[in-house]
Amino acid sequence: MEHNPRAAWLAEAASAAEQQGPGNLLRVVLVVMVLGCVLTAWFLLRGYKRKDE
After folding, report:
1. What pLDDT digit, counting tens, does each position of 25-37 carry?
2. Which of 17, 43, 44, 52 has most Cβ atoms within 10 angstroms of its Cβ?
3. For residue 36, what are the domain limits?
4. Would you say residue 10 has pLDDT above 80?
């Protein structure tokens, strides 16, 4: 089997994730969820702006 640095990095990341637990993943999921809610609210509410013509 030849040396593949990409596979070695992936294996190292997987073993590190097992040791850390769900904390970092949960943080990322919560940040993405909050940003998604903010962007969705902005997108929906920008249509309610009144234009005085």
Report:
1. 899 999 999 999 9
2. 17
3. 21-53
4. no
